[in-house]
Amino acid sequence: MMQLESLYTEIIMEHAARPLHAGLREPFDAEVRHVNPTCGDEVTLRVTLKDADGEPAVADVSYDSLGCSISKASASVMADLVIGKTVSEAMTVSEEFVGLMHSRGEAEPDEDVLGDAVALAGVSRFPARIKCALLGWMAWKDATARALSEREMDAPDADREQL
Ligand code: ZN
Questions:
Q1: How far is the CA of 56 from the centre of ligand 1 (A)?
Q2: pTM value?
C-alpha cells in the first residue's frame, strides 16, 4: 500500500510539474473560469468540439490552471482523458471520477476507465481537498454544456419549416 501511494504521489507531482495539453488555444467553442476559494485554485478552460459521425466529440481542451498540485494534476489528467472521446464517453469518465472523489477512500478505482486519474483516489479521504481535484472536471463539464448549447443554436433550424 505504501508503495502504491508513493507511486500515486509521483504521478500527481509529474502532472502538476508538466501538465498535459496546458495553455489556452484557439479556436474554441466555449470558455469558462472556475475558482475554488477554499484553496485559491483557479482554472480558465476552453473546449472545442467536433463532429464524430453525427455525435459531438471533444476535439480539444486547453486550459490555464493556477493553484495547488492536486488541482493542476487533476486538470492535466482530465484533459488527457477526455480529448478525442465523444462527449457522452467523456461524461461517463467524468461521472466515474466524481463518484471516486465522493467515495471517502472506499471505492476501487477502475484504471481502464480513469487512467492516471486513479492516482487521485486518495484525495477522496480528505474532504477539504476534493474541490481541488474536481475543479478542472467541473470547468470542463460547464464549458462543454455551453459549447453544446451554442452548437444547437448554430445548427440549421430544422423545426422552422414545420412552423
Ligand atoms: Zn487546491
A1: 31
A2: 0.91
- DSSP characters for the chain? -HHHHHHHHHHHHHHHHS-TTBB--SS-SEEEEEEETTTTEEEEEEEEEEEETTEEEEEEEEEEEES-HHHHHHHHHHHHHHTTSBHHHHHHHHHHHHHHHTSTT-----HHHHGGGGGGGGGGG-HHHHHHHHHHHHHHHHHHHHHHHHHHHHS--TTGGG-
| Domains observed in the chain | 2-150 (3.90.1010.10)
Average pLDDT, the chain: 93
**d(CA 55, ligand 1 centre) in Å:** 34
Residue 130 Cα to ligand 1 middle (Å): 8
What is the distance in A from the centroid of ligand 1 to the CA of 156?
42
pLDDT tens by residue, 96-111: 999 999 999 898 899 9
Q: How far is the CA of 70 from the centre of ligand 1 (A)?
A: 6
- Rounded to whole angstroms, the Cα distance separating 92 from 114 reads 10
Dump pLDDT digits (tens) for 132-156.
Answer: 999 999 999 999 999 999 888 776 6
Alpha carbon of 155 to ligand 1 centroid (Å): 38
